[in-house]
């Protein structure tokens, strides 16, 4: 009974560690070695489009609405203290430090991460990866690497776009609708937002999230059981694992950046 | 003078998890011949092709391709060796996001520095050989199963390999495309001087094109020879397989407890 349970714990620990090992090997194999820009660049551009540009719409719409909601909620509290002039910093700091990187990463995991997992899982199931290997083309270099770099490049940019649109959304609600003074919205924001402390830390956060989300998505696809059931499970796992990992890393990074 | 034997498998053992697939198996593939590997489904015929291609590593034994032991090759040596072999997967495994033309051009663009005009000519020649020159602008999703397999065949011969391995080329084909593929395998083998390995369980088709046949079951080779020799093979297992009998040395029933005992259990 106890031995059984111990055995199960041991088994799941070993398989988890083995999963980390396989994920590490995959990334290692994809990124190691000298890059071939002549062949690699067109592949990267294509993935930048698929992963980045096609995620723009959901990022723009979500950013706008989150900025608007922040302004609405923030205004209701601030106005009680007569501090509605601080609405600009409230909206911009919330977005730059937290919501921008985190929500972008969550949306990215749902939009691009799940698509990547399904695509690679399906390539595996239809033997495309195997046949590429038999044609002496390394699928890690050819399939995984461009997607990885595209994700790492796109996510910080998407987060910055999310922030910008969110701040505009805050302006729309706060200034245009609720009547906060436009001058104080922008000037208080300018006075309170620091380039390194706030903007750069947000970018660093989203870079870390990008690595985590894209690595999980690619690994889950590459490691998927090549059946329709296996691919659907891998896709779900990507979204769940990547979202939880993003939230976990966010807490750690926030503690390091703003805790002291 | 090149050696007559292209692939020499010696004492190959391989297991998946705890389940042994092959035990001390020997097999030889003659250069320029069509060698068929037959056997019931689920005995790891595809696995054998992946072992030859170096995608899987055996537990023990040698797999010599042109005298070099595939499992012992370094990564770059293995990739060099793979340029001389190609494999036709059961599903065709065409790249779904490229046209038929780009699929066939893929190995050429990856491994040669030929100018695009020459690549175009080679691709058209290969597509002509499989009768799909007119389908070059279609996407793989627009092809029928038989056409997809022929397109994949054109891609497989794009780099003029020494060896081509067919994984279940006849499975799930209608009689016409089956006939087309049978003819293609034979003609390509003769015209291009290829060596072909065909893995299949379609007895009639295989017996009609193979120069030499191995029957694999029970983790090893149970019968071998030319199609003529095999038809006269005394082994009951070989005969059961060739004639497609439901019961025999390979039992119809999956391993189970005694029938009567299980029925009685219910009434208890």
UniProtKB/TrEMBL annotation, chain A:
Its biological purpose is as follows:
Part of the ABC transporter complex MlaFEDB, which is involved in a phospholipid transport pathway that maintains lipid asymmetry in the outer membrane by retrograde trafficking of phospholipids from the outer membrane to the inner membrane. Probably responsible for the translocation of the substrate across the membrane.
Q: Which domain of life is it from?
A: Bacteria
Q: One Pfam family name from the record?
A: MlaE
* InterPro entries assigned to the protein according to its UniProt record, in alphabetical order: ABC_MlaE_roteobac (IPR003453), MlaE_Permease (IPR053408), Permease_MalE (IPR030802)
Question: What topology does it adopt in the membrane?
Answer: Multi-pass membrane protein
Which segments cross the bilayer?
Answer: 12-33, 48-70, 144-168, 199-218, 239-258
Q: Which UniProt keywords apply?
A: Cell inner membrane, Cell membrane, Membrane, Transmembrane, Transmembrane helix, Transport
Q: Which GO terms describe its molecular function?
A: phospholipid transporter activity
Q: What is this protein called?
A: Intermembrane phospholipid transport system permease protein MlaE
Q: Which GO terms describe its cellular component?
A: ATP-binding cassette (ABC) transporter complex
User: What is the native source organism of this protein?
Assistant: Alishewanella jeotgali KCTC 22429
Assembly description: The complex is composed of two ATP-binding proteins (MlaF), two transmembrane proteins (MlaE), two cytoplasmic solute-binding proteins (MlaB) and six periplasmic solute-binding proteins (MlaD).
Subcellular location per UniProt equals: Cell inner membrane
So what family is this one in?
Belongs to the MlaE permease family.
Automatic annotation (TrEMBL), chain B:
The record, for CDD domains, names:
ABC_Org_Solvent_Resistant
Q: Which Pfam families match?
A: ABC_tran
Q: ABC transporter domain: from which residue to which, for each copy?
A: 7-243
Keyword Transport in annotation: yes
* Record has Transport as a keyword: yes
Any GO molecular function: ATP hydrolysis activity
What PROSITE patterns would the database entry show? Answer: ABC_TRANSPORTER_1, ABC_TRANSPORTER_2
Instruction: Identify the SUPFAM superfamilies for this entry.
Output: P-loop containing nucleoside triphosphate hydrolases
Q: Which domain of life is it from?
A: Bacteria
Protein name as catalogued: ABC transporter ATP-binding protein
Q: Which organism is it from?
A: Alishewanella aestuarii B11
